[in-house]
Amino acid sequence: MSELKASVAWQENKAFMGVSPSGHNVQMDGGKEKGASPMELILLGLGGCASYDVVSILQKSRQEVQDVRCELTAQRAETIPAVYTDIHLHFIVTGKDIKDKQVEKAVNLSAEKYCSASRMLAQGGVNITHDFEIVAG
């Protein structure tokens, strides 16, 4: 197991600057004035993690991918803590002669095996669903 280090520093009001383990700055704002809220970043992290997997798997299966977009829809609990209860990932894959079975396989492998964010959230009780569409490029 490897140790990662990150930091978060308060700037003003509800704004914070995060520094990732790789040294990248991330502006956060609970008031959403100067950046995404921390909970929004969790949602974006899930989308980024899953999208990375889908693109990588499709490229390895020699699909001519031109674009992959992941649109996320989420519901949060009404009470504190307002955790995510349900998240749906909709992948839009654009390319030439993209095979339906390959996209389905990529999305399923990401969800069930490779996406650390998806697995972690699901183990925490979040209901995560997926679907996709293919657009000819």
UniProtKB/TrEMBL annotation:
InterPro entries hit by this protein: KH_dom-like_a/b, OsmC/Ohr_fam, OsmC/Ohrsf
Q: Which domain of life is it from?
A: Bacteria
Under Gene3D superfamilies, the record lists:
2.20.25.10, 3.30.300.20
Query: PANTHER family recorded for this chain?
Result: PROTEIN YHFA
Protein name according to UniProt: Osmotically inducible protein C
- According to its UniProt entry, this protein's organism is Psychrobacter alimentarius
